[in-house]
User: Fold this.
Amino acid sequence: MWQDKLKEIIYILENSNVNEIELKFWGRHYRVVKNPSNNITGNQNLPQTIDIENESQVIASQAIEEKDNLEKPLRDKTVGEEILSPMPGTFYAAATPDDPQFVSIGDKVQKGQTLCIIEAMKIMNEIESEFDGVIEDIKIENGNPVEYNQVLFTIVPS
Assistant:
């Protein structure tokens, strides 16, 4: 069971801008780091944990490099203005799973119109358009985590 929790922590670390997580639970002390040059420590009685962490460390650094390589060309091609996430949280394209999305690609939006909701600490925060325009691209899928200043939408101003 503790290995599942450790895998969850590694997943969170891989999908965030945080470089290191250190915690204690169930009498064990863990430190997980993205940077491969740092040593990772775990309970010395559990050599499997060190293998899992080292393997995840390599996977995390490779995933970050691939993600950066994929995002760079996309940023160069965009001509619209980017709407950035003002906070980390979970992206929701609609108010409820049964409701239609707030906006879709090609929709005209007005300044102040709700584009999405970001849930942070069980608080639903509506993200509004900063200007009039047309939605060129939606960068995040519904239900995915977002980081601070991550691009959510590209809007071509009108």
